[in-house]
Amino acid sequence: MQMGYLAVFLILLLPIPFAASTLVEKKFKECLMTQLDGNSESIEKIIFTTSSSLYTQVLLSLEQNPRWVNSSWRPLLILTPFHESEIQAAIRCSRELGLQIRVRSGGHDYEGLSFLCRVPFVMVDLINIRSIEVSLADETAWVQAGASLGELYYKISKASGVHGFPAGTCPSVGIGGHISGGGVGTMLRKHGLAADHVVDAYLIDADGKIHDRKSMGEDVFWAIRGGSAASFGVILAWKISLVRVPPIVTVFNVERTLEEGANNLIHRWQYTAPELHEDLFIRIVAQNSGDKSKTFKATFNSLFLGGIDKLIPLMNESFPELGLQAKDCTEMNWIQSVLFIAGFNRDDPLELLLNRITTSKSSFKAKSDFVKEPIPKTGLEGAWKVVVEEDTLAMLIMEPYGGRMNEISESEIPFPHRKGNLYNIQYLVKWEVNSMEESKRHLHWAKMIYRYMTPYVSKSPRAAYFNYKDLDLGKNKHHKTSYSKASVWGKKYFKGNFRRLAQIKTKFDPQNFFRNEQSIPLLNFYYSLLNFY
User: Fold this and answer.
1) The 280-288 sheet, strands edge to edge
2) Residue of 202, 212, 211 whose CA lies nearest to 176
3) Strand (E) or helix (H) holding 429
4) Is 527 a catalytic residue?
5) Where is the signal peptide (predicted)?
6) Distance (Å, whole) CA 408 – CA 315
7) Contact at 8 Å (CB) between 423 and 401?
8) Which pLDDT value is given to residue 116?
9) Helix, strand or coil for residue 183?
């Protein structure tokens, strides 16, 4: 090892304030210069050090949870590459200097793992790696990892009025991370997950080599579709298959309070929603009023892939208790429904889908569960009591499975939550005052509702959705987490697929370069020790 890099390595063994030094920055820039054939002008355009005037602006530009704003675990350097070669160089230089690397595609990681790390690290921000190429000839699209869901939906809609893609409901979410965790959306009962529709990918490994599906092999290709792609490399792009959507779809929001029978309706919904025709998706947002009034409402939020004339008879037959009428429904095209589900109006400009930066941001904490048996009415009543006790916005988002999800094997891709799951619950609490005291109080509520729900949700393991990242389930220790300890949280996300993921990880990234607090561990603990020492 050269003396210069030995000095950097010794610095990185010290606490982070010492590691964030000009020496590290200098050595990293020198390494990039070497990797990129001495193009210093292009390097200065893409690298932001802690002393850069734009560092904080770039760091916080896509940050979606102010809860992390005051963290001291910030990157030593931020890279905003325009070309894949710059990402390859960043990987090689990070390895050479003993730095960790984190990748941000949209900034929506629930625990901030794309831009926070307890050890010295470089953040690669993919904001400039976001091209989308739609091919109607074979009904596919290549989507770079830095593109948002909204940008993808927008681009598809400009190419076709009868194509769509079954991914998430939040337009600003980055496609890179979303698909790597599965990708749940309003068309999952008809078409499955976003990850179910990936047919190829470009992935950069720990040596900086770019792989497609053929060169990475079917095992790795299996792993990155729902099994934490960030554990295996840096996703550059996904090739996805588009789905057909009808020219007219129907949406509705029906609100009910407890006085209007919301609890009975939710209880009935558990039996009905997973068994409905696969064209019909009805989720529930059960929430308080966000203040101390202790009021509660449930919103039945729906997308139907067809017109009102077909929806009303279907609802009258399958879920008459809701009392849905034609006046409650609105017909529109698919891309307008994307706006509607995201909280916009049907006639709002489609360009709103391109907005990646939200002006109003709240701190939040989320947890998740899967439900396999209907919860009794008394159990639901108790949950709503916990919800209204919180004095800021708290909610349960309940999304039905069934349909196509029942037909896909739980080992087809790493996402295992298929047949036998009635619905998924996301517990979400938001607050405005970003202080340690306030955060602690609201985090307590999240743990309280999660504890209350224990008797009513999946068991052995108590399952969770990987994209609703939750470090309360457990986390890796830097370098030293064994497979058995990681299994505590890993089997909640991946069940029986977790061991296979660890086997693939051990073979593809044996030095465990791509790691974070909930990355797939090496199968053999001794690999970690050998690489640490």
Assistant:
1) 329-332, 249-257, 296-304, 280-288, 394-400, 423-431, 363-371
2) 202
3) strand 423-431
4) no
5) 1-21
6) 26
7) yes
8) 86
9) coil
Identify the structural domains of the chain with CATH numbers, from first to last. 18-125 (3.30.43.10), 249-332+360-453 (3.40.462.20)
Q: How does DSSP assign 93-121, residue by residue?
A: HHHHHT-EEEEESSS--TT-TTT--SS-E
What pLDDT was estimated at residue 13? 42
Q: Is the peptide bond before 416 cis (omega within 30 degrees of 0)?
A: no
Q: What is the largest CA-CA distance in the chain?
A: 77
pTM higher than 0.90: yes
| Non-local CB neighbours of 207 within 8 Å, separated by 6+ positions | 91, 92
pLDDT at 480: 65
pLDDT tens, residue by residue, 476-520: 876 567 899 999 999 999 999 999 999 999 999 999 999 999 999
Angle between helices 22-35 and 84-97 (to 10 degrees): 130
> Is the sign of the CA dihedral 46, 48, 52, 58 positive or negative?
positive
Check residue 162 and report its DSSP letter. Answer: S
Looking at the chain, how many residues does it have? 533
146 contacts: CB under 8 Å, gap ≥ 6? 105, 106, 125, 126, 127, 128, 129, 130, 174, 175, 176
Radius of gyration from C-alpha coordinates of the chain: 23
Q: Where are the alpha helices (DSSP H) in 36-171?
A: 40-46, 55-60, 84-97, 149-159
Dihedral (CA of 446, 451, 457, 460) sign:
positive
**Which is it for strands 100-104 and 121-125: parallel, antiparallel or unpaired?**
parallel
Strand pairing of 363-371 and 280-288? Answer: unpaired
Question: What DSSP string runs through 205-270?
Answer: -TTS-EE-HHHH-HHHHHHHTTS-GGGT-EEEEEEEE-EE--S-EEEEEEEEETTTTHHHHHHHHH
- Tell the burial category of 114 from Cβ atoms under 10 Å away from its Cβ (0-12, 13-18, 19+): buried
Q: What is the pLDDT of residue 357?
A: 77
Per-position DSSP letters for 296-364, written without gaps between them: EEEEEEEEESS-HHHHHHHHHHH-GGG---GGGEEEE-HHHHHHHHTT--TTS-GGGGG----SS--EE
- Which portions of the chain are predicted below pLDDT 50? 1-20, 526-533
The catalytic residue among 450, 468, 483, 493 is 468
